[in-house]
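Q: Can I see a sequence and its folded structure?
A: Here is a first one.
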Amino acid sequence: MSRRRHPDQLDLLGWEPSEPVRAFEAHTVRAASLAASISKAVSQSLKQCALSREKVAARMSEYLDEAVSKPMLDAYASEARGEHIINVVRFIALIEATGDRRLLEFIASQFDWAVIERRYLPAIELAERLEKRAEMDREIEANRRQLKRGGVL
């Protein structure tokens, strides 16, 4: 007879860590130029968005209080339309409309930075303090050894 788990019982092996950094797979946004990579990122975001391009354009228009059309989004997403690179204001509106944090991560990754949720900041600060404390402990221990060798301790 197989044992049944209670529905509230967590599965230890089923646990997956959170995803503090969300990014596009590198091969999906790789291109010959930065402008082409941005177009690919815009394209990936729009393809994977639950909203239609028309709805994304409408949300962007509302956010910016200016007209953004589906053909504009199509142009931003097209590598062939290099003269129609999305500007930063519309890029921000696109992030807001799609909720796709990978777009912001794409830009940050150009500088070897990462975009994380603010709730992770205390954990990062704690890790930095623990690293500093470990460094200080090593320095203190080195000083202690030196003092013992000198007969002071």
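Q: Show me another, different protein.
A: A second, unrelated one:
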Amino acid sequence: MSNFDLETLLNLNGEVFPMENGCWTKFEAYRVEPSEQIPHGISYSLTLHDKNNRRVIGFDNAHAVKPKRKKYGARKMTWDHNHQQENVFSYEFESAGQLLVDFWEAVEAYLGAGHA
């Protein structure tokens, strides 16, 4: 994991960025002891909220997510995930830098689809 990318993410902890359309983003990111649930040692929550203060996009690892059941597949619990409005999807944490890229791409896609 790039130290620059990691420090960038950690330095965003507590930041809130209002947008002209009434939406806003919030960043929480800090080091934790690596564990089975959080092997990379970073607890994070990156969120986009609409003008009514509803979270509409979120990338976090605050709780476990059960994957959709497959007929014969093993049940793997994952903590890294993203919220797209009412839906929750597993997220493969690669690096702090990639997390930031993925978050901003999701924000741009949401806003580009005419949501605000």
